[in-house]
Amino acid sequence: xxxxxxYIYVEDDGxxxxxxxxxxxxxxxxxxxxxxxxxxxxxxxxxxALNADALATVSEWEGQMGPDNDYGxxxxxxxxxxxxxxxxxxxxxxxLYPDRMGRAAQRYFGVENDTYYxxxxxxxVASEQGITISPRTLRYAAKHGLIQGAEKIxxxxxxxxxxxxxxxxxxPKPGRKTNY
Length: 180
Known about the structure:
Layout: E1 6-11, E2 17-22, E3 28-32, H1 43-58, H2 79-84, E4 88-92, E5 95-96, H3 103-109, E6 116-117, H4 119-128, H5 135-143, E7 151-153, E8 156-160, H6 161-170
Antiparallel strand pairs: 1-2, 1-4, 2-3, 4-5, 6-8, 7-8
């Protein structure tokens, strides 16, 4: 079953952070503004609900955009209207783009762009969390894009701190995969 809605986060040049829910035809169904004031790392608390049903989740939040709100913030009609506002796209359906993020988005998503681990450091972090993982698995994940933002410089991999944590929490479990 295909997802009914897509959600995107955009950040404007003034540090404002917005969330929009789009339908399959790129029409904006809902929007939230002032997310720059949310708690640090708040996205980790809401991402599962957004992935399950973005429209239902967002409809319960404060900061609604549109004609019925008290904030005077208009809801764009389509993705083209959002894009025309010259806002920077920082997340689509849970895929983060940290290189596009300003300080508000970094704070909301809990991203620290300047903190990297090498493979041995990442193994130590995983071990401290009680997670057993091999260096080969980490290199494979970095090479195949499973750890977002991983960079290979020379022969060494550098894994962003935030992305490594995401991977360790949500990584595919080892072993044979069967569908019953």
